[in-house]
Amino acid sequence: MKASTQGFIALALASAIWGGMYVASDALMRTMPPLVVLEFREGVSAIILLFIAARSRQLHVARRDYLPMFGVGVIGFSVSIGFQFYGTHAAGAALGSLVTASSPILIALLGAFILKEHVPLRRWLAIALAFVGVIVIVGTPAPGKDTTLGVSLLLVAAVCWSLYTIGSTSLLNRYSALTVVTIACTVGAITSLPFASFAYLHARHPLPMNLAQWGEVLYISVIGMALAFFLWVWGFKHVSASRGGVLLLFQPLVGIILGVVLLGETITIGTLAGAILVCVGVTLAVLERKPPLALEPTP
User: Fold this and answer.
1) Exposed (0-12), middle (13-18) or buried (19+): which is 109, by Cβ within 10 Å?
2) Which residue of 4, 61, 66, 143 is 20 to 30 Å from 182, comparing CA positions?
3) Handedness of CA 31, 25, 196, 52 (dihedral sign)
4) Does 277 have pLDDT greater than 90?
């Protein structure tokens, strides 16, 4: 199997996992503060990843990369996910999915300007087609009193996520995906801790209240954070930013499917039409014949 194919599979799996994150995260945030949920997610993941990376001796980082590693940790884990949690809470899951789906466009733009990747017109059209599909799936949300604030927070989250993706892609020239994700996740957990502690002290129910919620914590931390972030970063070791980033558009699509399977929701004609547009757009972007000018994977 080609390395690029493996990269696409890894990115698709990560996106699918994150599609299920809305169910688990929303359930937890009904009783727990978002920042406490964030700290659980990052803290448990950091412990697991540190253990694995230490055993495989993949924690060494050159001094010149201390600041870049710290930057991707703060931007990708603390800021991006924190703003995403609060933005979704304020604006609703529909707008949250929609704004999050703008990340592939931002990733393609940053990949073109920062990594000097060539983005063909066909790929831009594929990204636009898939994004239109996401708009059809999500629909037009009803305006609420916190809609403006929520969208603003979600846009910040999307920009930070795109910067994280580009920044981690550059670091993969020198380090393994495990090293980058482990250090970034640990930095995120440490920098989020003071804010999570404040939220914990002022919450009525700061901890999971039953076994089901503890199970949701394990899902969002072990599968949704440690595994998914590793797959996402590893995938971009073999796929260019503009090609791979479009797979993030599978996230709201998977969320719809899980809603039907797990929550008994119905699929409308608009949802089906949007799903088709997403699939066609992603397929056109992935099957681009012209080889991308991506960073070569390290051996």
Assistant:
1) middle
2) 4
3) positive
4) no
d(CA 46, CA 103): 24
Lowest pLDDT segment from 13-22, 85-94, 281-290: 281-290
| 11 contacts: CB under 8 Å, gap ≥ 6 | 231, 232, 235, 236, 239, 244, 247, 248
188: confidence class by pLDDT, cuts 50, 70, 90: very high
Do residues 131 and 249 lie in contact, with contact meaning Cβ atoms separated by under 8 Å?
yes
Burial status of residue 262 (CB atoms within 10 A of its CB: 0-12, 13-18, 19 or more): exposed
**Per-residue confidence at 299, pLDDT binned at 50, 70, 90?**
very low
For residues 195 and 82, what is the distance between their CA atoms, to the nearest angstrom? 10
- What's the gap between Cα 281 and its chain centre? 19
Enter the DSSP assignment of 92. -
- Gap between the Cα atoms of 49 and 57, Å rounded: 12
DSSP conformation class of 61 = -
* The pTM of the whole model exceeds 0.70: yes
Name the one residue in this structure whose structure tokens are 């789906």: 101
- How many of the other CB atoms lie within 10 Å of CB of 170? 15
SS3 (DSSP) at 144: coil
| 120/128 Cα distance (integer angstroms) | 13
224 within 8 A of 21, measured Cβ to Cβ: yes
Overall average pLDDT of the 42-58 stretch: 90
